[in-house]
Amino acid sequence: QVQLVESGGGLVQPGGSLRLSCAASGFTISNYAMSWHRQAPGKERESVAVISSAGGTNYDDSVKGRFTISRDNAKNAVYLQMNSLNPEDTAVYYCSAERTVVGLRSKYWGQGTQVTVSS
User: Fold this and answer.
1) Mean pLDDT confidence for 23-27
2) What is the CA 109 to chain-centroid distance, rounded?
3) Which of 1, 28, 69, 112 is the most exposed, fewest CB within 10 Å of its CB?
4) φ, ψ at 89 (rounded to 5°)
């Protein structure tokens, strides 16, 4: 059974840091692009960061210089280090895995983890 399970969310004060983890099971992430997304109340889900199977990264402008995405294929996991958090970062954070093979697209989602930035 394919699963992505996020962890590491919680309540943090402005300026603080959190490290999110996403553990995959039922498949191997090494051939997948892994991403973190977030959805704030009343807003659409947005992409935050992506790391390709080759290790290349891309970030939304709102988190550049503050967030770092990384992957550990040996542990079948992806991480999001979040620094200098501000209240606008409050959202449910989701990880996803995606690949396209011979025109067939596969995409999996986790259930999300809540991040709340508040004093």
Assistant:
1) 97
2) 10
3) 1
4) -85, -5
